[in-house]
From TrEMBL, chains A, B:
It comes from Tenacibaculum todarodis. It holds the Pfam family Pyridox_ox_2. PANTHER family: 5-NITROIMIDAZOLE ANTIBIOTICS RESISTANCE PROTEIN, NIMA-FAMILY-RELATED PROTEIN-RELATED (PTHR34071), FLAVIN-NUCLEOTIDE-BINDING PROTEIN (PTHR34071:SF2). The lineage of its organism: Bacteria, Pseudomonadati, Bacteroidota, Flavobacteriia, Flavobacteriales. InterPro entries: Pyridox_Oxase-rel, Split_barrel_FMN-bd. This is Flavin-nucleotide-binding protein. Gene3D superfamilies: Electron Transport, Fmn-binding Protein, Chain A.
Length: 219, 219
């Protein structure tokens, strides 16, 4: 089992029984989503920006306009962290205190690097699109050079990380189990609705198989 | 229409056509969820922590253990922001550049205050539980004093805020509409599964009506 080294930065203080530093487990959580929350400091305040991402090995890639103040700021300061969370359930306990959620979350710390080469940028943008919708990129119109020129692609190398996972049932005070109070779990998940074709040619063409596959796997 | 005043902090720079400062619209987005992303600065790095919240007027309430390093840190420094985002759809365009998501997001800036009085703390914890599961609190075992004593309740007064909403179809380059490329929207939503009763008394009792109502409204 390969683990991220624990440091002052990534060591989980609250709920240590839910914590893991296991690289495989962290990668599995990262690969289950495509939206991350990127932290940056603006005017002394920590601001969180939701962004699309993709992961390859120990790298996370995000992108935006070359005028994106957040991306430029974190590239310069190298001060950021990335959080990903999947909500899996509401934990309804017998007491207020033991109410909780089931979830998988990851927090990543690392260093930043601007991707300069066009071929690398293109390859990464393909990964980002395909992380949102598998096998999708090759069906698209190729990027124009001017589009590539105004896109900033940032590589985040994970240096340390932690995950928290809660995936069990209700955990109440021992004496509360005798009370005539209902408790249980409400599972929560994110699902896809049936794809809606854009007007014009897409309506005539029909929905591509890879998009239908996504719907079937996520409905 | 009441609006938050635009300042350097909350003025949306990218995608201004999606931005709103309207108090009602911002409150509607806040009331549609119960999980927020709270930013704080630790060792010079911005870290984002997912937390349960509730809203009353221009106040957001979050809570945690009295030993929660993040809550203690933001109370002391007053440097934080809160982000809430709901993902509503994948926007699959004809080109990579115009891929996007439909969403409703809010970023809040404000001041912080620790709630000291037991009655106030209890009232707020009721709101937090009921924001996650409407009408739920009154079915629970009342809080013990010792539970209240080790719970930190923090009031965040919204001073300035912005929202971004994308809720339209695909927006491609004009010339791309002639291409034989499929484009469209995949709606995304968060849904509830059927409630799972905890072992013991809850199994005999049956699922309470308010939990069944939640399931029916969110399935």
């Amino acid at each position: 089992m390969k683990e991220y080294k624990k440091s002052k930065l990534n060591r989980v203080k609250r709920g240590q029984n839910r914590a893991t530093y296991d690289v495989e487990k962290i990668n599995t959580i990262l690969d289950a989503g495509f939206l991350c929350y990127v932290g940056y400091i603006y005017e002394g305040k920590p601001i969180t920006i939701p962004m699309a991402y993709t992961r390859r090995d120990n790298k996370i890639y995000i992108h935006g306009s070359t005028a994106n103040r957040m991306l430029l700021s974190i590239l310069e300061s190298e001060e950021t962290s990335i959080t990903v969370m999947h909500l899996d359930g509401l934990v309804l306990a017998r007491s207020g205190l033991h109410h909780s959620v089931n979830y998988r979350s990851v927090t990543l710390f690392g260093s930043l690097n601007k991707i300069e080469k066009d071929e690398e940028k293109t390859a990464i943008l393909k990964w980002i699109v395909n992380q949102m919708m598998p096998n999708h990129w090759d069906s698209l119109r190729p990027m124009y050079q001017k589009e590539l020129d105004r896109t900033l692609v940032v590589e985040f190398t994970i240096e340390t990380a932690s995950a928290k996972i809660r995936d069990t049932g209700v955990a109440d005070e021992p004496e509360d189990y005798a009370l005539p109070i209902w408790a249980g779990i409400v599972p929560i998940k994110q699902v896809a609705g049936y794809p809606i074709s854009d007007k014009g040619k897409p309506e005539e063409m029909g929905i591509p198989q890879h998009v239908l596959d996504y719907y079937e796997q996520n409905k």
